[in-house]
Design goal:
The complex is a heterodimer of chains A (1209) and B (178). Chain A has 1209 residues and is α+β, with helices and mostly antiparallel strands. The longest helix of chain A is centred in the middle third of the chain and has 31 residues, at 709-739. Helices cover 53% and strands 15% of the residues of chain B. Chain B is an alpha+beta fold. The longest helix of chain B is centred in the C-terminal third of the chain and has 32 residues, at 122-153. In chain B, helix 2 (72-89) crosses helix 5 and helix 4 (101-111) runs antiparallel to helix 5 (122-153). Chain B has six helices and six strands. Chain B starts with a strand and ends in a 5-residue tail after the last helix. Chains A and B meet through helix 1, helix 2, helix 4, helix 6 and helix 8 of A and strand 2, helix 1, strand 3, helix 2 and helix 4 of B. Chain B: Its main location: membrane. Chain B: InterPro entries: AP_complex_ssu, AP_mu_sigma_su, APS3, Longin-like_dom_sf.
Chain lengths: 1209, 178
């Protein structure tokens, strides 16, 4: 042995350690990869050795290589070996490597469960700490479930070092195993008031992180956080809390009022920038403090420190969301930031601008942005600008655009950007505007045709994703609305130029299609004018030019082109015979096109009997043309294809449906109208014809040399607004003269408000179509995979038994609490996830209490909120109402308080209601009217507490809470599954045997050791005489006769729990094992060696694990016929059925599947997978239990045990 | 939540990488390179924040960096981290990070756990680290001490290989072997 060690040490001398490895890599700069692969080979050799030090060294080096990007997953098992080393030095290396390389897919990770549990309960705080740190990085749902309880216990560890880590890691556990949130929450809440600031801050951290995602569940913690905020000096904690309040205030407006004072104090604190910044998100709705905050932020933004500038802008954007007005006044400052050299700051400023636009300033802001587009260096920022401009303009259904001509010109200007990736974005906007704003089509068409005409776009068309995408929109718009074209022939020629064939396929395809539309409308014109020759000339042009598309490599283009070419040739023949063809050709494209809502397709109900997933034909190999298709941005076009032109009848039908839908939407309070845009006024008018379109004076040339066109509109718009204003003033004056001294509402307003600006064109934004009965909702926007959704859990509800955390093996409870207490959230017996049905059933009887408790909680909050902000830091919720405005709920909750308080509170509440009138002297009034109030109280109680139809509430109004449905039923006394094992004057042992599903055929024996003497008990060791059937699991290397040490000492009067694992061969019979606990009792006089014998009893029930089962699965199981049957009957039972079932559940680990009257089916499963089904029937004074089980011996033994339990009832 | 903590030198060589979200080695390397690319492009006098780029894993991520060479809380965190390193290594320099990544990891583990802030009090961190180191030393015992002494006496051949940058460090260590 010794020789081996020496040999190992000598070997190690030649091993590289981490430093050597690093040095080596630095010295092999030329052939680093080769050197490293050499090193990895060495490491593999080292890992094969027995010496743990060598292994640890190897793993340490691997960790470094992992950082350099080498996969080390092959060493996962070795890492676990090093993790389980007894020395901290190695353990730490192992855990570090694990935390760097393990993830949910690592298969050996499940082997770590027991090791981690052992480390968590290690007497050395550093072992525990290192395990917690490691676990935080690689915790999986399985690990979370198995270890949740162990970690929860650590939250009450004596060392704050462990406590804070345990608290923090709980967040990870919650994420992976959401069921643990409710059982663990009470303790987590406790930790908010931990004496150690580190633990406190960890708890704040975790709760804030949870609350940020689902704030409403944490509203009841507001008072506690308020206290922390006013007392804490730790900036980190403050920041977190303020952020939390930021999420809470929108849910509870009264909270905002309460926060004003402390927050204002915080703002005034010098140099607390971070606090100020987080403040901005948590600011209550209080204009003075908002103003103050914004002013302070302005100072930050003006600061020369770029970081402060950035943070100031970030904070501003948070205020902007709630108080846009107060930020808008700082527009100048934000526009300035657009000039900043730092991109991060410019992007932040852009983001702010988005929220700051109004009808009044939109043009100005966009103009400014356009100048930046020109100046911008680097495509990323320029692209960002471009998307922002489009975002800003199109936001909330083009709410802020008063002049769409201007917008189209902006879009056209944007097409001059070179190398942008966002051509398709511009194109989509062009299409959207042209389709939805009917009045703008004429203008749009003229712009688009000049776009088609201008060659500069074609020149840069080599870039596939580039700006040439806009040609797609241009071609489509010109074709679709060709009736508006000034010179259709000219445009047609432009679209048939040979250069077009260099465009991407999907654009060419649109060209081809729209060329025909254009052609149709030209034919129409010519024929109406009687120019037969002209018409023939156009046809000839088509016949000449179309072949270039027929040769296209793009299938779509080729197909369309050849099809159309034949059509045109046919037309040519007809024309030669002087047959009028225009009517028929135009009929190809008759009908109006309507915009379809993006979600419409999804909302179309699938007809019955249609399986969309079934193959119609077996799939062919991938078609290559797939990637040539335009992106989904052009859904209008794509969705049109299957539909194509709706016939006239369809049109009518559509109109009718639309009308019906509008009616329905108008009556439906849940339907949120898409936007309150003034344009919408026009959408109700039946058609375009009826819209009085203002003719725009186009005598002003649209293009002024040297000045971008859109600027024109800014000027025009100013003039127009001025004009409008003048007119308005005139009207007003007239009115004034008329009314003389009448009420004036607009009287002295110096500036016109946003709403006063009427749009230049009478635009109508056509609402997007949706299938019938489909409502545009946001629900499908939610990501079902969002991990935080699972954590949306009501935390105020009391815990159900089924929710307790699963427990396994070695748990080392540090608290001296006795495990007999069943109401402690730390679970004692139940395992596995909660099952709805069962839960419901169980909770039925407690509905009342729960309701009460919930009310109480709400009441506490109400009460806390309702107290007027005190001058000093606010007190935590006090039980006695002291000030006015006490919520109604508060009264219901404080029912159990004395009558006086109640009426007084009620009285005050009344006062609060009448506050408006006699705020000055509430107190005297209160005294005076006390009697009267008492009467009113009664009346009010009835009216307020009893929502119509709620009988429960009526019951609640009675003094004592009555159990629902079973008033005579006594609640079960708190029970313990722990039974006495042995006791003497020194020590008392109680134990509980639990099965575990994880490990096959293993049971865990939890023994609570209670020191009854005045000595310290140490060196405890448990030795058990194994039988053939049952063996105790001992640490590796120890023999069968060795005892297993108990991992703690017991000071006088303290109790603690130790857990031991036993492996059982056959579980069909009960087992008894003899054992001895030996220990040293040490007091002032000296130490004595003592021992205590005991007999461990493994009942068959202890091999069962509470497993929920659904009734359908249960029925299947019974039908299967694989189960043998047996039954027992017990007489003389007086206990209620409910309690009876509870007893069976508790002592024999069953769960109720279904219960009908006095008959219930129950299910459980053994650790070896036997199914056990029970049917429990209650007669007058007897209970019969019929059982079915896959093993008959097990069943009969179980029933015997059950009989014994029932006999005691 | 903190998604990753990275340290690299001015040439983009990673000196420490700690990811708090599971990523494959390839993605990790990509993020490291992307981060360095973004940060190295930034001028000296700009703020220390960079928002959502594809290179750093999408638009929800924010990169907060500091040249050693400040959301303020994270900047502060970086500061505390560097100061703690300074205390633990007595004037920390790149070489310390190069040769003692494991130690840096251990220090970091006392500050951030699973992506969440654990401790910001520097004294507390240093105390824990010291205790852990003592524990490690006590475990090492005599045999290990001897071993490391023997191992280091092998030094003569090493100086040949190390480049100039390392010498200053090594020289300060040598006298102890006399």
């Amino acid at each position: 042995m010794a020789l081996k060690m020496v040999k190992g040490s000598i070997d190690r001398m030649f091993d590289k350690n981490l430093q050597d490895l690093v040095r080596g890599i630095r010295n092999h700069k030329e052939d680093e990869a080769k050197y490293i692969s050499q090193c990895i080979d060495e490491i593999k050799q080292e890992l094969k050795q027995d010496n743990i030090a060598v292994k640890a060294n190897a793993v340490c080096k691997l960790t470094y290589l992992q950082m350099l990007g080498y996969d080390i997953s092959w060493a996962a098992f070795n890492i676990i070996e090093v993790m389980s080393a007894s020395k901290f030095t190695f353990k730490r290396i192992g855990y570090l490597a694990a935390s760097q390389s393990f993830h949910e897919g690592t298969d050996v990770i499940m082997l770590t469960t027991n090791q981690i549990r052992k480390d968590l309960s290690s007497p050395s705080q550093y072992d525990t700490g290192v395990a917690l740190t490691g676990l935080s990085c690689f915790v999986t749902p399985d690990l979370a479930r198995d270890l949740a309880n162990d970690i929860m216990t650590l939250m009450s560890h004596t060392k704050p070092y462990i406590r804070k880590k345990a608290v923090l890691i709980m967040y990870k556990v919650f994420l992976k195993y959401p069921e643990s949130l409710r059982p663990a929450f009470p303790r987590l809440k406790e930790k908010l008031e931990d004496p150690d600031p580190g633990v406190q801050s960890a708890a704040v951290n975790v709760i804030c992180e949870l609350a940020r995602r689902n704030p409403k569940n944490y509203l009841s913690l507001a008072p506690l956080f308020f206290k922390l905020m006013t007392s804490s000096t730790n900036n980190w904690v403050l920041i977190k809390i303020i952020k939390l309040f930021g999420a809470l205030t929108p849910l509870e407006p009264r909270l905002g009022k309460k926060l004003i004072e402390p927050l204002t104090n915080l703002i005034h604190r010098p140099g607390v920038f971070a606090v100020l910044i987080s403040l901005s998100s948590g600011m209550p709705n209080h204009s003075a403090s908002i103003q103050l905050c914004v002013q302070k932020l302005r100072i930050l933004i003006e600061d020369s420190d770029q970081n402060l500038k950035y943070l100031g802008l970030l904070a501003m954007s948070k205020i902007l969301k709630t108080h846009p007005k107060s930020v808008q006044s700082h527009k100048d400052l934000i526009l300035q930031c657009l000039d900043d050299k730092d991109e991060s700051i410019r992007l932040r400023a852009l983001d702010l601008l988005y929220g700051m636009v109004s009808k009044k300033n939109l043009m100005e802001i966009v103009k400014k942005l356009m100048t930046h587009v020109d100046k911008a260096e680097g495509t990323t920022y320029r692209d960002e600008l471009l998307t922002k401009i489009i975002d800003i303009c199109s936001q909330s259904n083009y709410q802020y655009i008063t002049n769409f001509e201007w917008y189209i010109s902006i879009l056209v200007e944007l097409t001059r950007l070179e190398g942008t990736r966002h051509g398709h974005l511009i194109a989509a906007q062009m299409l959207d505007v042209a389709i939805r704003v009917k009045a703008i089509r004429k203008f749009a068409v003229s712009q688009m045709s000049s776009l088609l005409d201008s060659a500069h776009l074609l020149a840069s068309s080599t870039q596939r994703n580039g700006i040439c995408e806009v040609l797609y929109a241009a071609a489509w718009i010109c074709g679709e609305f060709s009736e508006h074209l000034q010179e259709p022939h000219h445009t047609l020629e432009a679209m048939l130029r040979p250069k077009v064939t260099t465009l991407p396929g999907h654009i060419q395809a649109v060209y081809v299609q729209n060329v025909v539309k254009l052609y149709a409308s030209i034919l129409q014109q010519k024929e109406q004018a009687g120019e037969a020759e002209g018409a023939q000339a156009v046809t000839q042009l088509m016949v000449d030019r179309l072949p270039q598309f027929v040769q296209s490599a793009d299938l779509e283009v080729q197909e369309r082109a050849s099809c159309i070419l034949q059509l045109v040739k046919h037309i040519q023949k007809l024309q030669a015979k002087d047959v009028p063809v225009a009517e028929e050709v135009s009929a190809l494209f008759a009908g109006e096109l309507n915009p379809v809502a993006p979600k419409a397709q999804k909302k179309v109900p699938v007809p019955e009997g249609l399986d969309l997933d079934a193959w119609i034909n077996e799939p062919l190999s991938d078609s290559e043309s797939e990637d040539e298709r335009p992106r989904a941005v052009f859904h209008e076009e794509e969705q049109r294809r299957p539909k194509h032109r709706p016939s006239e009848a369809d049109e009518e039908e559509l109109a009718r449906r639309r009308e019906a839908r509008k009616q329905e939407q108008a009556n439906n309070p849940f339907y949120i109208k898409s936007s309150p845009s003034p344009q919408k006024r026009y959408q109700d008018t039946p058609g375009v014809e009826h819209i009085p379109v203002v003719q725009i004076d186009l005598s002003v040339p649209l293009k002024v040399p040297g000045l971008p066109m859109s600027d024109q509109y800014v000027k025009l718009e100013e003039e127009r607004r001025h004009q409008q204003k003048l007119e308005k003033d005139k009207r007003r004056k007239k009115r004034k003269e008329k009314e003389k001294k009448g009420k004036r509402r607009h009287g002295s307003l110096p500036t016109e408000s946003d709403e006063d600006i009427a749009p230049a064109q009478q635009v109508d934004i056509v609402t997007e179509e949706m299938p019938e009965n489909a409502l545009p909702s946001d629900e499908d926007d939610k990501d079902p995979n969002d991990p935080y959704r699972a954590l949306d859990i009501d935390l105020d509800k009391p815990l159900a038994d089924s929710e307790k955390l699963p427990i396994q093996k070695h748990r080392n409870a540090e608290t001296s609490k006795s495990p007999e207490k069943e109401d402690v959230p730390v679970a004692e017996k139940k395992s596995k996830k909660p099952k709805k049905k069962e839960k419901k059933h169980k909770e039925k009887g407690r509905d009342k209490e729960k309701k009460k408790e919930k009310e109480k909680k709400a009441a506490d909050l109400d009460f806390w909120l309702s107290t007027t902000p005190p001058p000093a830091p606010a007190p935590a919720p006090a039980p006695v109402p002291s000030t006015e405005e006490v919520g109604v709920n508060a009264v219901t909750a404080s029912k159990d308080e004395c009558e006086d308080t109640k009426t007084e509170a009620q009285g005050e509440e009344d006062d609060a209601e009448g506050q408006e009138q006699d705020k000055k002297s509430p107190k005297p009034r209160k005294k005076k009217h006390k009697k009267e109030k008492e009467e009113r109280t009664k009346g009010k109680k009835k009216s307020k507490k009893q929502p119509p139809g709620s009988e429960e509430a009526a019951g609640e109004a009675a003094q004592e809470p009555v159990q629902n449905g079973a008033p005579e039923e006594e609640p079960l006394p708190p029970e313990s599954s722990y039974s006495l094992l042995a006791e003497n004057s020194y020590i008392k042992m109680t134990c509980d045997v639990r099965g575990s599903l994880q490990e096959d055929s293993q049971v865990t024996v939890a023994i609570v050791l209670e020191n009854r003497s005045s000595s310290v008990l140490k060196g405890m060791e448990l030795s058990v005489l194994d039988s053939l059937n049952a063996r105790m699991a001992r640490p590796q290397g120890s023999s069968v006769h060795d005892g297993v040490p108990v991992p703690f000492q017991l000071p006088p009067g303290v109790s603690n729990e130790a857990q031991f694992v036993f492996t059982i061969q056959s579980i069909v019979m009960a087992q008894k094992l003899k054992g001895t606990l030996s220990f040293i009792a040490k007091n002032d006089e000296g130490a004595t060696q003592e021992k205590l014998d005991f007999r461990l009893h493994f009942s068959c029930s202890s091999y069962l694990i509470t497993t929920p089962c659904y009734s359908d699965a249960f029925a299947k199981l019974l039908e299967s016929g694989d189960l043998s049957m047996s039954s027992v009957k017990v007489d003389g039972i007086r206990m209620s059925f409910q309690n009876l079932l509870a007893k069976i559940c508790f002592h024999h680990h069953f769960s109720v599947v279904e219960r009908v009257d006095s008959c219930a089916s129950m299910y459980s499963r053994s650790i070896q997978g036997h199914h056990v089904c029970l049917l429990v029937k209650k007669g007058e004074n007897s209970v019969s239990v019929d059982g079915k089980c896959s093993d008959s011996t097990l069943l009969s033994n179980l029933l015997e045990e059950m009989k014994a339990t029932l006999a005691k009832c | 939540m903190i998604k990753a903590i990275l340290i690299f030198n001015n040439h983009g060589k990673p000196r420490l990488s700690k990811f708090y979200q599971p990523n494959s080695e390839d993605t990790q390397q990509q993020i490291i390179r992307g981060t360095f690319y973004l940060v190295s492009k930034r001028d000296e006098n700009v703020c220390n924040f960079l928002e959502g780029r594809l290179l750093i894993g999408g638009s929800n991520n924010k990169l907060i960096y500091k040249h050693y060479a400040i959301e303020l809380d994270i900047l502060d965190l970086i500061h505390v981290f560097v100061e703690t390193l300074d205390k633990c290594f007595k004037n920390v320099c790149e070489l310390d990070l190069i040769f003692h990544v494991d130690k840096v990891h251990n220090i970091l583990a006392e500050m951030v756990m699973g992506g969440m802030l654990l401790e910001t009090n520097m004294n507390e961190i240093v105390t824990q680290i010291d205790t852990e180191n003592k524990l490690e030393k006590s475990e090492a015992g005599l045999a290990e001490a001897l071993l490391s002494a023997v191992k280091n006496t092998n030094l003569p051949e090493i100086p040949r290989n190390i480049n100039i940058g390392d010498i200053s460090i090594k020289l300060t260590n040598l006298p102890s072997f006399k």
